[in-house]
Amino acid sequence: MVKPWQRGRGPLAFICMAVVGLCLLSYWLPQPRAAAPYSRIVLMADAHLPVRTEVVQDVAKQLRVKAAKEKALQDINAWEDVAQVAVLGDITAERGTVEEYAYAVRYFDALKKTLFPMVGNHDYMYADTLSEKGKRLRADARERQEKLERFKAAFHLPEVYYSKQEAGYLLLFLSPDSLDGKYLTELSPRQLAWAQQQLEAKPQLPTIVFFHAPLAGTLAPYNKEANTPNFIAQPEAALAELIQRYPQIFLWVSGHTHTPATNASFAAPVNVYAGQVTNIHNADMDRETIWTNSLYLYPDRVVVKTFDHKRGAWLEQLERTIYPMQISER
Q1: What is the model's pLDDT at position 4?
Q2: How do beta strands 249-254 and 207-210 pair?
Q3: How far is CA 117 from CA 44, 162, 200, 212, 279, in A?
Q4: pLDDT band at 36, cuts 50/70/90?
Q5: Secondary structure of the chain as H, E, C letters
Q6: Which class would CATH give 38-329?
Q7: 127, 94 in Cβ contact below 8 A?
Q8: Backbone angles phi and psi of 136, in degrees to 5
Q9: I need a labelling partner for 54 at 20 to 30 A (CA). Which of 27, 61, 215, 243 fits?
Q10: Burial class of residue 83, CB neighbours in 10 A (0-12, 13-18, 19+)
């Protein structure tokens, strides 16, 4: 018989005490992070690695710009909820030389996230050698092809365009690849046909297109280059037809114009193309103040947020929510 002062010392009591102890221990131990209700993609545009010396000529400033690029990469690595990083072209500084590509590879080797790189005009459109006056020259078809192959080899890609399904969305990563086109950011007919096949095969998926240049008319004419043929996605007419034919396209993500987050049309009603597609513009990284956008892909919406890497702060006034067209509405 167990006396009153002996109660709680039997096997059952020890089990109870062990359970209580485990509960207390689990309270103090770090808890596993709950899965985020979104998939987050960080956008990097116009990295121009290591730095555009033809623009940033002061050596001290070049060092500050390089340091800002390293800081941005460290910030992105520290964000635990980031699934992937899309790099929107102009990865290399000026002409896509072997040395520039080697630096870019070393830079992105430090990235701890999944990388989705795209070609920009500086990655393939210019000859390695400069003119007698030290100016960039357009590459011929042979050299453009060599640089596209250089890009694929650097980032271990079978092709310079590809697709992915993520969080219920179709993501199309496109690259300018025209070997004889006269515009800086022009897709080849072969790539346009491939994009159409992707859209035709998955009409039920809201689609986001990532490309170096923006759609026509999605910026205010704040400088002499905005909305001009070399600073929009080409071929303009073919892309307009593609977008009209496939209303599942609701977001277009671009760089190329170097539009800073301080510009009034960085996030504005003018960004909506043909009443259907919102163009998300991204600033270049060849500066001391770097901003990156993040796409938060929720099942029913995409939230866009802008981060100032110099201040270490979110720009709440630039946050936007974009809803894809519902399948039933088509």
Answers
A1: 35
A2: parallel
A3: 9, 10, 24, 10, 19
A4: confident
A5: CCCHHHCCCCHHHHHHHHHHHHHHHHHHCCCCCCCCCCEEEEEEECCCECCCCCCCCCHHHHHHHHHHHHHHHHHHHHCCCEEEEEECCCCECCCCCHHHHHHHHHHHHCCCCEEEECCCHHHHCECCCCCCCCCCCECCHHHHHHHHHHHHHHHCCCCCCEEEEECCEEEEECCCCCCCCCCCCECCHHHHHHHHHHHHHCCCCCEEEECCCCCCCCCCCCCCCCCCHHHCCECHHHHHHHHHHCCCEEEEEECCCCCCCCCCCCCCHHHEECCCEEEEECCECCCCCCEEEEEEECCCCEEEEEEECCCCEECHHHCEEECCCCHHHC
A6: alpha beta
A7: no
A8: -70, 145
A9: 215
A10: middle
Q: Is the pLDDT of residue 165 over 90?
A: yes
Integer Cα distance of 145 and 121 in angstroms: 13
What would the two tokens of residue 154 be? Answer: 């650097």
Task: Give CA–CA dist 30/133, Å, rounded.
Answer: 62
- Taking the C-alpha atoms of residue 242 and residue 296, their distance in angstroms, rounded to an integer, is 25
One-letter amino acid at 72 equals A
Residue 112 backbone dihedrals phi, psi, to 5 degrees: -95, 10
CA–CA dist 83, 64 (Å, integer): 28
- State which amino acid sits at residue 25: L
Phi-psi region of 58 (alpha: psi -120 to 50; beta: other; left: phi over 0): beta
Rg (CA), the chain: 25
Token pair of 160, please?
Answer: 């310079």
Please name the amino acid found at residue 153.
A
Domains of the chain, by residue range, sit at: 38-329
Contact 212, 176 (CB under 8 A): yes
102-139 confidence digits (pLDDT tens): 999 999 999 999 999 999 999 999 999 999 888 999 99
Q: What is the pLDDT of residue 18?
A: 55
Tokens of 262: 């301080």
Query: What residues contact residue 211 under an 8 Å CB cut-off, 6+ apart?
Result: 88, 89, 118, 174, 175, 176, 185, 233, 252, 253, 254
